[in-house]
Amino acid sequence: MGNRDNRDIGRPKLNLILKTALSLGAGIIWFIFLILWLYFLAEGFSVYRNLAIIFLSVLVLGIVNAVVWIPFGIIGRK
Question: Where are the chain's structural domains?
Fold first, then answer.
């Protein structure tokens, strides 16, 4: 029984590391998307459409992070 408890101690830390890595990776991917969008595609759209696409991409990034972190907060409260 003591060994089982020792194995469970590392899981929350591993989950936290994975969630942090996913958030960091999503942020890096979003930043790369933003640079590529502004460099290659933004010229063909109006300023308002470019702003809408940037805001939409920020919303998608927020949804990805919410899906990752909300269960962590709910489980952490139990």
Answer: 2-77
